[in-house]
Amino acid sequence: MIGGRAVTGEVDLSALVNMFFASNAIATRGPKGRKPTKAVYRTSSIKRGRRTKAEIGAIRDALCAVVAEQQPMTVRQVFYQLVSRGVVAKTEGEYTRTVCRLLTELRVDKTIPFDWIADNTRWMRKPRTYSSLEAALQNTAQTYRRAVWDEQLHYVEIWLEKDALAGVVYDVTERWDVPLMVTRGYPSLSFLHGAAEALAELDRPAFLYYFGDHDPSGKDIPRSTEARLRELAPDAEIHFAVVTVTPEQIEGRQLPTRPTKASDPRSGKFSGESVEVDAILPGALRELVERCISRHVEMDVLETLRVAEAEERKALVWLAAKADGRSPQAFRTAVLRGQNWNA
């Protein structure tokens, strides 16, 4: 059952995706509804001279406007949006020497906040520690959550080809308590084995939604991933669906293309140009992730969980306050305001 309606057979995800992109077009039409000319990825025969300060200033303003509108974004997503708006040419030189350089300057001089640009490719490993028992209890009271999917009829995962985009969609998967599985290209056998073990332990259908590029490897990664998961978890009920990037999305949203890499060993069986998932507007990408997840949520079950979660958080607040020797009511007020009890 999804959204209170009985569902039989596999979910028609392609209809969902097509409906979404047909009804949620964002800045893809020209004046009076005319389609803009589709961008073509090619090297310009005109040698560009050095830009003036005014031209650089205009690009900086465009960068600020794009990021403020869609943040958080990856640098690649910013580049594609500037290309779509005719601000920069679609070349790797413009990406590295213009967009990357100016975004660095804008963050260093604090014109753009650092957290507006997503980068999940570099991170630190460190165990969580606390200064005291009271601090640990305070943190637990503030962050405690019930597992959303324990009582739901389905189990959901979002699979993402690119690590850099994890920061763009994580706020959605985190809010819904959904695993975000980042493959970084072809996933390793160890990664797939761990994922398959979790799927094998389920007592309900698992719906896996894949977000990746439209290119030779991008088309093959989900095929290979699904086949291996089914091999490693033969008894699990797995519904695997590719959400992006599809030919329908490329045409319907006039997504910018790039040349298909001839060095890719799978390019011989691939026709046409390639499109990166980064070309989709961040807001549209987050919305599509949200729709894939929320369609499996039984809202009455979720509401019951939220009530239980609130009562259990009150108990944690009381324990934390007693350990600290202070008023539970004062502690609860501090927790709700997000304040540090020891400040």
Question: Layout of SSEs?
Answer:
Blueprint: H1 13-23, H2 53-70, H3 75-84, H4 92-108, H5 133-143, E1 155-160, H6 166-175, E2 180-182, H7 189-200, E3 206-211, H8 216-232, E4 238-244, H9 247-252, H10 282-294, H11 299-324, H12 328-336
Helix pairs in contact: 3-4, 5-11, 6-10, 7-8, 11-12
Produce a short descriptive summary.
The protein contains twelve helices and four strands.
Q: Would you give an account of this structure?
A:
With 343 residues, the chain is of the alpha/beta class. Helix content is 47%, strand content 6%. It has 12 helices and 4 strands. It folds into 3 domains: 52-115; 130-147 and 298-343, no CATH class; 153-260 and 272-297, Dna Topoisomerase Vi A Subunit, Chain: A, domain 2. The protein is globular and about 70 Å long. Helix 8 (216-232) links the parallel strand 3 (206-211) and strand 4 (238-244). The chain has a 4-stranded parallel sheet with strand order 2-1-3-4, with helices on both faces. The relative contact order is 0.15. The model is unreliable at 1-11 and 16-46 (pLDDT under 50).
